[in-house]
Amino acid sequence: MKLRQIEIFNAVYSSGSISSAARALAVAQPTVSKILKHTEDQLGFLLFQRSKGRLVATSEANVLYKETKSIYRQIAKLNNTVDNLKNPDAGKFRIVSVAALGLEALPKVIQKYRAKYKETRFIYQTHHYHNLVKSLLDYDKDLGFALNPPPREGIKQIPTGEGELVCIYQNGEFDNFPERLKFNDLEGHDFVSIEASGPLGDILSERMTREDSNFNSKIIAQTYFVARNLVGLGSGIAIVDSITAKSAGPGSPKYKGFNPPMKFAVKALYAEERPLSNLYQDFLEFLKENIEL
Known about the structure:
By secondary structure, this protein is of the alpha/beta class.
């Protein structure tokens, strides 16, 4: 297989569709289809089968992907190195984080850092955890930040802080309660739950199971920030991370933690094959001293 064929194959395998692969590679869909078809003809077996509008990898493709993904990463690393050689900039940071940290916590740190080091430049994006890890492994970004991330092969983790899950409310529901709530205090209130809430959702689910709690869920929000806004508009109460609880939005929700606390770690992530430079390590120390969790 030629390098272009490997690039096309990996993009289609990762995205599950010709159109998504074409967008990721910034090429026309017919080009992706043509190269993929030529690759299958050359190999003598199918790489994908169509099922309900999606491309499903064959067993041969699964084996091939395991063999080619390291090559694909090396190509991405080479392209990034070439780009950096063409555009040297010792003061440029390429950072990615989960959305909760992108509301206010990280932007505030970046602004403070730039106030101190005015010549630095930042490329900063937010992603879901899976895409965040991919951007690090593909060398698209150098440093990532996530909440309670699970271990992942090829990714190193550095603790940078700690937060906790809290209950937010808008209509004075818990004004007369102690500063830390019990789970049974929440029962009977309209509850805004969060769909597919990742590692933090696992912490909450484990606690609910242990305490045999069942909340009156009236609305399911896609993200913690949407849940925060719904509560701010008077839709009920919700359990969100302490970072989101402090963020700006409609209304002025109050929040209280739980007894015992449901804590989570904020961690910096980077590709094991690409150790952090002294510049990034200095930025991490600055972040640990200045981030508001």
